[in-house]
Design goal:
Layout: H1 6-9, E1 11-13, E2 20-22, H2 42-62, E3 66-70, E4 73-77, H3 79-88, H4 92-121, H5 128-141, H6 147-161, E5 166-169, H7 171-189
């Protein structure tokens, strides 16, 4: 299927205020933002950031998320340790929330990003509409990606307030936070319009 794009029409859209401009304009005459028909180096930036986020998720899931110092000794647990703990103690809904927010969602977002890159790289125009829906979905859920960090921070405050023990965040918290932020940047770097472009319209790096 062939769509008529802004490149066919010879115009460019300001991504900030959504005003159309002719190609010769370098800046938006409404908000002053730089104008590009496509985000510069969108594919290279998205791939690099998505790859970095994937690598960061490895220590985020293997290293301790929380370390508990108490009278009986120290105890450290990963994200999955926390999920299993809540499932075994009858708090399944908490375990499910942590699993979805901290394991499923990050890997789902990265899988979608690599899928979108595949659509653009191999010109799978038939998948463009599905890709656009998936892009909108991961862009929407990005704001909830730090839920696990908020849960850890809340537990740290509650337990220390009750003087039950001392809880500190483990190295996985830093890796997870960096992975989440990097994934958000990768999502913002991607230009979904590339999925609808024809091969002869694309620049060398998107």
């Amino acid at each position: 299927m062939r769509w008529k794009t802004d490149i066919d029409a010879g115009v460019q859209l300001c991504l900030h205020c959504r005003k159309l401009h002719p190609l010769e304009r370098k800046r938006c005459d409404r908000c002053g933002s730089p104008l590009f028909q496509r985000k510069p180096h969108a594919l290279a930036k998205t791939f690099s950031l998505a790859l970095a986020a994937t690598l960061l998720l490895i220590p985020a899931n293997l290293l301790p998320m929380m370390i508990v110092h108490s009278l009986v000794g120290d105890d450290a647990g990963t994200i999955m340790d926390g999920v299993i703990y809540f499932l075994e103690h009858g708090e399944a809904w908490i375990g499910v929330v942590i699993f979805v927010a901290s394991v499923f969602v990050p890997f789902f977002k990265l899988t979608v990003l690599f899928y979108l890159l595949w659509i653009v790289r191999f010109h799978r125009h038939a998948k463009a509409r599905l890709g656009l829906k998936l892009y909108r979905l991961i862009h929407f859920i990005g704001k909830w990606s730090m839920l696990d960090i908020f849960v850890v921070a809340l537990m740290v405050g509650l337990v220390q307030f009750k003087n039950l023990a001392t809880i500190v965040t483990g190295p996985a918290a830093i890796a997870f936070m960096l992975a989440v932020v990097t994934t958000i940047f990768a999502t913002e770097a991607f230009d979904p319009r590339l999925m609808f472009d024809h091969e002869n319209q694309r620049s060398s790096d998107g």
